[in-house]
Every structure is written in structure tokens, then in C-alpha cells.
Amino acid sequence: MTALSSIDLDQLAALIGIDEISEDLFIEIKEALGPDGKGQLPESFFPTYSAMANTRGGVVVLGFRQLSSGEFVLIGIERPDRVISQLWSSLNNRQKVNVNILNELFVDHIDVHGKNIIKISIPSAKRTQKPVYVGTNPLTGTYRRDFDGDYLCDVETVKRMLAEQVEDSRDNHILEGFSEDDLNRDTLKAYRAAFRTVKPTHPWNNLEDKEFLRSIGGYKSDRQTGKEGLTVAGLLMFGNLRSILDAVPNYLLDYQEQDALSGDLRWIDRITTDGSWSGNLYDFYNLAIQRLSRDLRVPFRLEGTTRIDDTPIKEAIREAFTNTLIHADYSVSVPIQIIKRQDMFRFRNPGTMRIPIADAIRGGLSDCRNRSLQMMFDLVGYGERAGSGLPKIFQRWSEQLWRRPELYEKSSPDQIILILRMISLLPKEVEQELEDRFGVQFSELSYIQKLALATVAIEGSVNHPRLREMSDMHPHDLSKELKELVMGRFLSSLGSGRATVYTFFEPKGQQLGQRTLEDSRESTLTAVPVIGSESTPSSESLVPSSESLTPSSEHLVPSSESWENQSLIDQKLRGRKKVPSNEMKELILIACAQSFLTIREIGKILNRSHHSLRAPLSNLIEEGLIDLEYPESLNHPHQRYRTKMIDAP
What we know:
Blueprint: H1 6-16, E1 27-30, H2 45-54, E2 58-62, E3 64-66, E4 72-74, H3 80-91, E5 107-112, E6 115-122, H4 138-141, E7 143-146, E8 149-152, H5 155-166, H6 185-198, H7 209-216, E9 219-221, E10 228-230, H8 232-238, H9 241-247, E11 253-259, E12 264-272, H10 281-293, E13 301-303, E14 306-308, H11 312-326, E15 336-341, E16 344-350, H12 357-362, H13 371-379, H14 389-399, E17 406-410, E18 415-421, H15 428-438, H16 440-443, H17 447-459, E19 462-463, H18 464-469, H19 475-487, E20 491-494, E21 501-504, H20 517-522, E22 527-529, H21 560-573, H22 581-591, H23 599-606, H24 614-622, E23 626-628, E24 641-643, E25 645-647
Parallel strand pairs: 1-2, 11-15
Antiparallel strand pairs: 2-6, 3-4, 5-6, 7-8, 9-10, 11-12, 13-14, 15-16, 16-18, 17-18, 19-21, 20-21, 22-25, 23-24
């Protein structure tokens, strides 16, 4: 049994291709010894296989043991070939699992320090493959992944998976016992007027209501049985509330406007299915969209001399709202909820994503749950049908230099949440500084170029890896964007390849990389860490010019303070495996004194596992001694930390 140091664990994680040797939503670590200690596929693998396949996929690593302390030790597998053989025979045994979604590319045998481990990558199953279950009964063998555990699904969840598997569209069923009398005539009349405005010469304008409904998917005839009647989509879109609830008992709509800036999250304006209006989707959309787009602080545009009040941001909000309604699973007991605040929009709909989130954001693929509703909204100009809705939303937000939209799923019960924050990636002071420095040229740059310049202004420099953390752009395209900034004399570069460091261009050849260490120190804002002071303002409230910012730890020419701090840390830690908590807090403050660092970077400076730093770092944050780069979200995926600073006297 081999215990590994924190550095070894990080290196091993990189070798395996995972973030760290620990368990979470996407990673499960197991032993695989068997009775003879030489190797056997653990029985607990199969619930994990089912759970990950039914959720968002993940990785199972075999060959580690978890200690009572929570740490993992490498034990290896003497007979990895036997374990892999058992894996394939079990996955292809329909008494064991109902479907095999793996192939040889998903299984890796890795030799580490002379010990064998096995990495099994489990993709998210396709909608037509779910539920993936253990044994022969989906109702008793279907699992899903939640945080770091595998949980047996309840019967209703399994039934929804089975329905999703066989039904491309969930809203085109004929509702027996319902008729045109269940529709709200005023709603249908308003929809037809909107249709006529968008498509004035369309032949459907001349049809009677019943035939018009049939044409748009609201009424249907079954050629095999001869039955005909309203569809689920027709009733949801145009029905009266009582009739809708008779057919869809979990149906609930909720729009809230909240005054979050005052600290009071109670609603100040609300639309819900309370019986005071028709209650159908079309009327809900028209009532809420006016409120959603009201008071948006996005400038109008001109076409010639005509003012155009519609803006790309309003278009994105319409798209998000429409997506919420057409992708909802109306059988789930979660209300559709739209929340508007001055600084954000939040859209929630019941159900799960039908395609992976990454594919949905990338665009080009579409698997709408309610295709008749999608068509109805599209016909009056309220949506997109080409899989371009989400990419358009993400693009519009990036054009405003607002924080990247958040899209994620939650379970128990199933729901999809989209959060659009109107919080700038560029503090106003930084944006003003960049406009003063570069003039009108700054406004003509691309989003990613503005982001690169803002990073230099805030952090002192930028490099290729740092920019990759903040965008989804392909690495090759990022390199081109940075090259254009250098050619345009916005930035100077030092180094080569993706290790190049970029700083602001200096006209007289005085780039930071060409200065002496003394020159660099003289142009740097002198700062001292604050220990024990609660009244000292955060350094994020100070927006010095780019020439007076403390250089990032990624600079090739670090300040003398950086060298002195590292020397002090090395001196305090020399020969010591354990450090008292109070002393570790002091060391963290020293490590973070010069620039924002991730918890992993702090761990490397202190030669400690980043897991061991979570508690002292959390204490420092509570004591007000550490600034967060993303203060609005403690668990931000790119969170970095810096000691609170004040100007030297």
C-alpha cells in the first residue's frame, strides 16, 4: 500500500485525467481487490455505472483505498486484465445491466509507480438509452448520481425516463374527454391576430379555428383509431386554467419581480396561476415578457433615423423565456418560475436536459421535449428551432461583457435552471481606465480581447492558460486574439508559445519584461498585508492604473517581495510535516500577499495538499482577512484568493 504526497496526488490526478483524487458528482474511487487480493470488479461498480449513465456521466477509478481520515492511498490491482475481462462480460450480460454504453476507448489501464489502476469513463447515456439499470427491472434497479453518491430512483422518475425514451415529443397526445370548449377563445383570437401580423399572406389565416389548430399541432386525429381531439400542446397554449389542471395536475406558472438590492427577496410584482386570468402559456408569456424587458439598461439602436427599441439583450431574454416553456416536463411537480431582479434573471423549468449541457451551449443540436409548443411559439416569432437559442443567449451576454450565464440541472425533483447575471466582468473603473488608455479603439475590440486587456489591468498580466479559464474559445483562436492585440500595440509579449506573458504595450520600449528588477519595483504599488484588521477596505475597491498594479504571480519578472515571501515560507516550513492552524493561516496570508491565487496554487507554494488548506482558508475569509476574486459566489469554479491589502504609509 503506497501513501502518496499531495504533489504526487496532483500529478497522479493529471495522469489519470481528473481534477483531483477525491470523490464528487463526476468521480468515484473504489478498491478492486477481490477475495484473493489480486483483483476483482467490485459489485458496487454497477449502481455507479447506472447512476452516472443516467445523470451527466463520470469517471470510476479502481485501485485506491479511502482511509478513515478521508484521504486516499494507492493500493493497485495485481491482475488488471482479470478485472477488465469481468467488466466486459458483466456489461454484456443482460441479467446484470440492461445496456452496455461503453467501448474499449472508455477503459484505460494505467501503471503508476509500478502499481496498476483502471480508469473507466462513463458517458451520459442518450435519451433513447435511459434508464440504464442494474438487473432486469428498471423500477428497482435504476440509479442516479447526486453529489458523491448513487441513489435509487423513485418509480415516478423511472416512468418519466421510460416516457422520454419512446416519445420524441411529449405534447402531441390526444386528450380524451377534452374539446374546443376547454379553450379560451380570447387567447386563441389574440394568437391568430399575432400570426396574421407575422405571416399576413399565409393560407392558414383563412381556416376555421379547428382546422387552424390542427395545422399548428393543437388538434389531432389518430388515423389508426379514428380518435381526434385537443392535444396537450393545444390545451397548454390556449386552454382555461381549470381544464389545464384537469389534464396536467402539476401545472403551475410563477413570475416574480424581486428587489434583491434592498436585501428583501419578497416579490414586488407577481403573475401566477391564481385564477385571475386565463392561466395558459400564451397569455402568461405575453403578460410576463413585458415586465421582463421593462427598465432594461441597454441602449436602443438606430436604423437610419428610426429608433429601434428592440435590442439583442431583449432578444436573448425572449429566447430564454421561450426555452423555459417549450422544454419543460409538465409532469414533474416543480413550477415554472421566472425571477427578475435588477442584477439578474433566473429561469427554472421542470425536467432534465435531453442533450448534454455542453452540446446545448455549443448549439446546432436540438431535442425539444414539446415540439408542438415549439412550433406554436416559432410561428409567431417567439423562438428558434435550429438549436441556436442557447448559443445566442451566451453570445449576447458576452457581448455586454457580463458574467457568463449559468446553466445547470438539479434533481429530486428534476429541474433545469438558467441564471443570467447582469454583472460586468469589467468593473466600471477598469473599463473607464481602458477607454482612457486606448480611446475609441477599445470599443472596437472583440469580447475576448477586451477581457484580456481587463485582466492585465486588474491582475498585472495575462497569459494563455488564464484566458482559457475565462472563456470557451478554442485555444488556437485565443492565440490569434492575443497575437492581434500585440500587432495592434495594445499588449507586449515576453516568452514563446502558450507560456507567453502579456502586459500593456509601452511606447518607448519600456515593456515590463525588458525593465530591470529595480525599474519594475519602482513602478509597482507598494502594499502590505493586513492581519487582524476588519476596517481595512478590500483591494478590489482600489483600481490603480495598469502601471501601478502589483504584478501577477505568473510574471516572469517577479517582485522582490515575492522572492522574500517564498523564502520566508520555505524557512518556516523546512523539515516540518505538521503546522499549527494559526501558523498555517499566517503562511496562507504571506503566500497570497502579492496576487490572487487558486487553492491549488497556494498548496503548491506551501507544499501542502490543497484539501488541508480548506479549513484555515475558510477561517481567514470569515475573519475578513482574505479577498475573493469572485465575492458573489464563494464556490465559483475559478475562485482565487488574496490577502487584504492597504497602501503603505
